[in-house]
Amino acid sequence: MAGFSSTPIHISIFLLSLCILSLSSLSWSSSRSNLERQNDDYEKWVSWNVENHKKKTSTTWETKQGMVTAGHRKRSGRSVVDSKLRRADLRTVRMCVSQDGSCDFASIREAIDSIPVNNTRRTILDIKPGLYREKIVVPLAKPFITFMGDSQNPPTITGNDTASTIGDDGRPLTTFHSATVAVNSDYFVAINVIFENTVPHVTGTLAEQAVALRISGNKAAFYNCTFYGYQDTLYDHKGLHYFKNCFIQGSVDFIFGYGRSLYETCYLNSVATKVASMTAQKRTNSSLSSGFSFKDSVVTGSGLLYLGRAWGDRSRVIFSYTFMDKVVLSQGWNDWGDQNRERYVNILGQFIEALLECLVSI
Ligand SMILES: *[C@@H]1O[C@H](CO)[C@@H](O)[C@H](O)[C@H]1NC(C)=O
Ligand SMILES: *[C@@H]1O[C@H](CO)[C@@H](O)[C@H](O)[C@H]1NC(C)=O
Ligand SMILES: *[C@@H]1O[C@H](CO)[C@@H](O)[C@H](O)[C@H]1NC(C)=O
Ligand SMILES: *[C@@H]1O[C@H](CO)[C@@H](O)[C@H](O)[C@H]1NC(C)=O
């Protein structure tokens, strides 16, 4: 994606930001009771949506399961949401990676190379502490891979490619291929891993996009992970993704793409020096299930920050129960130079449903 000043996007956009700020410092007063009432209404409204979603999807699940398990005894409850995933998780393989040669593999790439094409087993790579200077692509045909680090001493996977770095074919890599780690396969999991791109963003220059992680596979989950970068740190490209307890740092558009993602208890830190936008969500039309939701999170950092700027014609980003430091601009979001984008108002309830579906599928 381009810098703040470049290519105008012609289509209209929508972006919804719901910000519920921390109430802890308020004293008993009329404003407090107002806020409490609003909070109550919000809670009611959320649980209404949750109930609605359950009703709708319970019928769908039964139908789907009925087809999948036809002829078998039907399992009760929600245990079989994804039978492929369940089968893979029942047949787990472990391998370990350590740079000192004391393990199965000395690099993450070698470990991935050893995994068979069309892999059907959950394959856990125990990655020992260390700085791994590797460019990694997890191929489409290798699903069910887990990167597992040590929570006390997580491994760092680092790189310094940008969109303009010249690739092997003599052409610029583009943002897409600048990622230090790119995941194309489904069912990827990372736990206690630091993903990094060290190239800083210099205001006013072109093509400084430098991705730390690109996730393009479906049904991916990241727990206790850290993403360090500047412009375009985390490319939440496409698919259902879940981020829990993650630290994400960058300067411009540092969470972007058209993933359908839930970020829970994450810490988002801006290192921008001027005005920047934190997210750039690219939902291009109203029929697409795409959007980012941040819940119980923290936004902090330097510079002045828009929560997001709309990259697609119907971008969706939601912040709920999220603490926002004073770096966040009161306007909240930026229309990326097109006032038409403000025409679109959407129904938040639909998005909460989408997220619930995302959660139970992982
Ligand atoms: C992997 O699966 C694809 C699609 O089913 C198939 O075309 C391909 O031959 C398989 N490759 C191997 C090495 O099994
Ligand atoms: C990227 O890192 C490599 C390895 O440390 C280094 O040789 C190279 O000069 C760096 N490139 C840039 C553009 O900083
Ligand atoms: C995440 O980090 C916390 C705090 O260090 C730790 O207690 C927890 O076990 C970690 N989670 C996983 C899945 O390793
Ligand atoms: C929305 O986008 C999808 C995927 O690009 C496309 O298949 C569909 O035709 C689009 N719908 C409209 C109304 O533009």
Automatic annotation (TrEMBL):
Record-given protein name: Pectinesterase
Family: Belongs to the pectinesterase family.
Catalytic activity: [(1->4)-alpha-D-galacturonosyl methyl ester](n) + n H2O = [(1->4)-alpha-D-galacturonosyl](n) + n methanol + n H(+)
Pfam families, A to Z: Pectinesterase
Signal peptide positions on this chain: 1-29
UniProt keyword terms in alphabetical order: Aspartyl esterase, Hydrolase, Signal
Active site, UniProt feature: 253
